Every structure is written in C-alpha cells, then in structure tokens.
Amino acid sequence: MPEDMERLPRKLLENLDPGEEVIRAVRKQPALEKPKWLVVTDRRIIIFDEKILGRYEMTAIPYERVKQVYLRSGVWRSGFRIETEEGEKIEMPWMDKDAAREAMEAIKEALQRISVEPPTIVRRKRLASEEWVLNKPREQITRSYVARQAPAQPATPAERREDPLEKLEKLKKLLDEGAITREEYEVLRRKLLEEITSGER
Fold first, then answer.
1. What range defines the domain where residue 127 resides?
2. Rounded Cα gap, residues 24 and 96, in angstroms
3. What whole-number distance in Å separates Cα of residue 13 and Cα of residue 88?
C-alpha cells in the first residue's frame, strides 16, 4: 500500500473503478489550501484537486491516452508534465522529489505491462537538477485498440479461421482511424496477401 494511501481524499477513493489498485500517490507541496494529488493506479494516472466544502476537480488519463511523461527534479522539489495523445498538457509542480521519482517508475512499469515494446526513458543529469522524459511506444495504440475489438468470449475454431479478406478490411480500418502507420499497414498487408495467394494454391 502506498505510504500516502491512508491520507487520500475520500472523494478520490470513491471515483476509483471496482478493483482498481492505487500504486503511488504524490501530494503537491507546499500547499496552503487543500493539496493536489498525482495518483498512479494500475489503469490510469489521476490528477485530483481537492477543494473546500467537498468540491474537487479530477482528471483521469488512461495509459492508452498517455503520450509522454516529463519529470524535472531540482534540489528539493520535482514537477511533472503529462502529455496526452490529443495534445493536452497537464502540469503538476512542487512535488516531493523522492515520491515523484517513485511515481515515474510506477508509470513506466504500468506502461510496460500493457505494451509489447517497452517505453523509452531519457535521463539528463545537470549540476542541480535532473530530467526524465518517458515516451510511450507507438505500437501500444494499436495493441490497445485491437484488444478493445477482441471478443469477450474465447473464439471457436470456426471463428479463429478468419477470412483473410476480412482481415484486410480490418487492417484498412485501423489505418484509416490512425491506429497504425502507413508503413505498418503495408507490412501487414503484404503478409495477408501472401497468405491469400498461398491458400489458393
């Protein structure tokens, strides 16, 4: 259980999905008002801004939508910037240095669990500061998209023998929706065409 778990706002805990696990929780510091939280779960990153009189603002970013996470650590404090696939940038300054590093590691591990290729991390060490830039692998978009299209029940033997022409149509749809690049499309299309021609022999 994260060290700050017992201090998490009740309203934040009420917004967790059933079975969602909190891995790391980091508070903004110093905070004269109620603190902002950066919460890393096994499914998403949550920015929670607790306000007085029970009010709050919450932004939840599923890992499929994360494009880049940037962490800058100074002598005492650290700050996060999270960029989504849609180009939105969310800033979280004034965070505990060690807790912020642990949160970055937790985000990296969460992305590794749901992607084929590992996320890349670039670290730059300077005299009084350090920067971490975590970039999500491009293929994860395709993998998560395909996973959402997969049938909930195990496929029967007949369903597993999918028509290669139907596969081509689905592949084209992935390209049109931007889930795969033109280069990826061409490689997969050639493989399917080879499968069709070999099956006709």
1. 5-140
2. 13
3. 25
